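Problem: given the chain below (493 residues), write out its structure.
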Amino acid sequence: FVAIFDCDHVPARSFLQVTMGLLVRDPELALVQTPHHFYSPDPFSRNLRTGPSVPAESELFYGVIQRGLDTWNASFFCGSCAVLRRSALAEVGGIATDTVTEDAHTALRLHRRGWRTAYLGIPQAAGLETETLAAHVGQRIRWARGMAQIFRRDNPLLGRGLTLSQRLCYCGAILHFFSGIPRLVFLVAPVAYLVFGRHVFNALPLTALAYGLPHLIHSTACNVRLHGRYRHSFWSEVYESCLAWYTAIPTTIALFAPKKGRFNVTAKGGRIEAPRFDARIATPAILLALVNFAAIAAGAWRLRLGAADVDSLAINVAWALHNLIVLFAAIAVACERPQLRAVHRTPVRVAAMLRLADGKTIRGHTVDLGREGASVSFVVKPQVVRRERVWLSLFAFGEERALPATIVARANKSLRVQFGDLALDEEAHLVRAIFSRADAWIGWDAHLRPDRPLRTFASIARVGFAGVGRAMSLTVRPQRRRPRLATQVRSEA
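Solution.
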């Protein structure tokens, strides 16, 4: 058997205990995939400050889609946090290298040979999300290009070995990455009537509204019912609007030239020293927003001249306003917020004890932990001062290990400390305390709240308008120091 992890993923000590039973029990099972859990926020959560109330972009796939694929024996390898049977891997010639999404392509080959796969929805490893929108877009470009290459070179609708359900599941996963062009068409469609007076559908305005509005309400209600906790309404439009331009080109090229494109490694783990607006990555969204704004102005002018039907104009103006709100949110994501910590903290409750220079000890527990520091809550208020050197003992796996630390800040019964230079065994104990507990990520979806579509749309509008204002201020205001992303980890995810 072979266990595979990206270099930024750290498995829990229970990883093999949880996954190997399925492989031992079923000799025809080639793969057990577990979720990719991320302990750092993605660019959307961090730059828009949505917090845990809005599900991250990846949670729909690992919380809903992979579970559904598993029902039809179509869950696929995601490149990390998985165990594969060596004999099955050897039968298909090892990891596929014909496309830049080697993980999904390898799973497709396994399914063609009759092997089964399983998805176990229990997070047993954690890793880093991309820090910036540019890195996020670069990662998604590779995924889109790779899926288009699979569609072109090893089309799941063709060839032998797959069931009808598997063909449809793979086809659905691949076609998702072809949404760039349809999304771009949707974002510019109101221009046809507002500027040129051309209808985009051949029906009376009220007839189109009578058929279209119930469908929109019904589809939104179904989405809320099916996956409301894992993807709130309208957020898919924000994600797709950020990526549409960047995925439309590589997927189209891959259809005609599937051998083009190279494997780009995603940079993860770093520090953004100052706020900035990434105008380059936001340029498509800015241009689309200007187009919709100009279309609304043109529609108002045509109404004044009496050259427009009021009902048709109202529908298309509402459409363009909807596009503007979504595009404003997409622009806001490009406002990069500072990431001052080079190492992310994770909420961890571990028994701890503070040892002072005079030998006194105070018991407490950690609130969050990172490889460089911790926040700790104590039963009594510690009598310490800033920059005082102390020892912080962590109790994990029946072992106590005292780590050298310096007081950074204090508030009532809580302290924030920064660890000093750690020996290898001390760092190993700290990493085990943070990442290796069997229950470290069990409650990963406990914070997810039910979707409220109208409230969600209002929140998107709020962060969008605020983000555009922030983008303008960051563009106008001179920066004394150019922000720098100091890359520490490069991941293939």
